[in-house]
Amino acid sequence: MQTFLDQVWIARWPLWDGFLLTIEIAISAIVLGTVVGCICGIQLLFGPAISRLLFRLYVDVMRGTPVLVLILAAFYIPSVVGISLNATQAGILALSLFAGAHIGELLRGALQAIPPGQAEAARSIGLTFPQTLTYVLLPQALRSALPPWINTGVELIKGSSLLSIIGVGELLLKTQEVIGRTFMTIEFYIFAGLLYLAANISLDQLGKMIERRVQGR
Amino acid sequence: MENVQPLLEIRGLHKHFGSVEVLKGVDLTLRRGEVVSIIGSSGSGKTTLLRCVNLLEEFQDGDIVLDGETIGYSIVNGRRHRLRDRELSRQRSMTGMVFQSFNLFPHLTAAGNVMLGLRKVRRFGKEEARSIAERWLSRVGLASRSDHYPSQLSGGQQQRVAIARALAMDPKLVLLDEVTSALDPELVQEVLNTVKGIADDGATLLIVTHEMRFARDVSHRVVFMDQGQVVEDAPPAEIFGNSRSQRLAEFLRNTRT
Ligand SMILES: Nc1ncnc2c1ncn2[C@@H]1O[C@H](COP(=O)(O)OP(=O)(O)OP(=O)(O)O)[C@@H](O)[C@H]1O
Ligand SMILES: [Mg+2]
Predict the structure, then answer these.
(1) Structural domain count, chain A
(2) SS (H, E, C) A53-68
């Protein structure tokens, strides 16, 4: 045990860097994914036919493809068409597109679940459609979409470990490097697992906190 | 009074949902300050008529003229065109609508519900919107509830907030669709009293109701609709007196009160 803790201490900076990168990747993907998801969810429900079709296609492709395949695609395809992305950027791209589809779909569901009387009451006092969306529909939809949105965040933290495949130095890859040096396989995998767990529990708690604040209303 | 232009004029209104014709040429006129109740059996098209006036439904033929302006459609080269969202929104804001199921915004307080239209449609500043909202909430007897969320209010209180929300916009015409039907019996009276107070203040009201006593007390005229048409349009004394048409007599016999 003592030797394991010594090894952790020796490897503290690489592991810390890996952990930070994992968090950065997850945050970037959830932010970009939320932007894409908002556009996607609104278009799926209210967009013109062509845009509904395209976003439906996007959602189905993203949801039907393993995340690992998305990551490999984001890593190899852009260079073919002349866009150069480093591994981290490619990974964030893949995770964002994945998250965008999921968030788009869950936002569509949340918007659709709002009773039609809400939009009618908003229009009847003279709000335009964009105003109705901004001040009446989205605030309600985002509220009910919060728990699954947090879930998507948890998926992204876990999914970021897949980026180790394309050589992104996030927590899992750093852990594997340390294992390669120390041969303390089980100990370090458990250690990494606990770090992922801590990140996910924190995110979960954050979600619960926001939920408490906006509910009871 | 005769030469004054009516506030609302509905002429030959036709509305169908798919192949089902729901309004079959409705004519109805309201003068400023007039209170008109619409009665009629379920499915006769009362709600649909109000929704057409509030431009929540499209209609296929006829005109609705509000304070001299033809609303909902424009005629270009002899063809009817539905107006754009922005224009429809402006016209909608001239009428207030109170719904059977309140439809308060659950994420906003009572004051927030009333203020939304004042801020975003009427473009009042925050302070001014709040003071107008407070004034209307106290007008409907809810001064102490302005910071409550809808879920913290009784049905009767929610409906009174909805009435304040509609009236605060200073509409030319207020449409009320069975505003007490979703309420527990003991909460009906407080809402009816609120409506009566507003009528006494001189608002122009078009009221769909199943409360016959209320219709008789509050209205200048009562309109009886049946199967998508206006069958009777007369002062309450006449409607509830010796009913002229067979269908009205039958309807009143089946509803009573
Ligand atoms: N969105 C819709 N699609 C299809 N048919 C509809 C729709 N809304 C109403 N209808 C039909 O139109 C007719 C008139 O309905 P409306 O709601 O206007 O009646 P109403 O007089 O308000 O009845 P009630 O007293 O029960 O409220 C009914 O036959 C109804 O089934
Ligand atoms: Mg009705």
Answers:
(1) 1
(2) HHHHHHHHHHHHCCHH
Kindly tell me if the per-residue pLDDT of B75 is higher than 60: yes
Position with higher pLDDT, A80 vs A36: A36
Helix (H) or strand (E) segment spanning residue B51: helix B46-53
Q: What is the mean pLDDT of chain A?
A: 94
The predicted model scores a pTM of: 0.89
Q: Given this model, what pLDDT does residue A213 score?
A: 85
Enclosing domain of residue A79: 2-214
Distance B25 CA to ligand 2 centre (A): 18
- Given the CA of residue B228, which atom of ligand 1 is nearest to it? 14
Q: What is the CATH number of the domain that holds A32?
A: 1.10.3720.10
- When pLDDT is cut at 50, 70 and 90, the band that residue A216 belongs to is low
Contacts of A122 in chain B (CB under 8 A): 105, 116
User: How many angstroms separate the alpha carbon of residue B41 from the centre of ligand 1?
Assistant: 11
Number of alpha carbons in the 13 Å side-chain half-sphere of residue B122: 24
Mutate to test the interface with A, among B103, B122, B179 (most CBs of A within 10 A): B103
Q: What is the DSSP letter of B83?
A: P
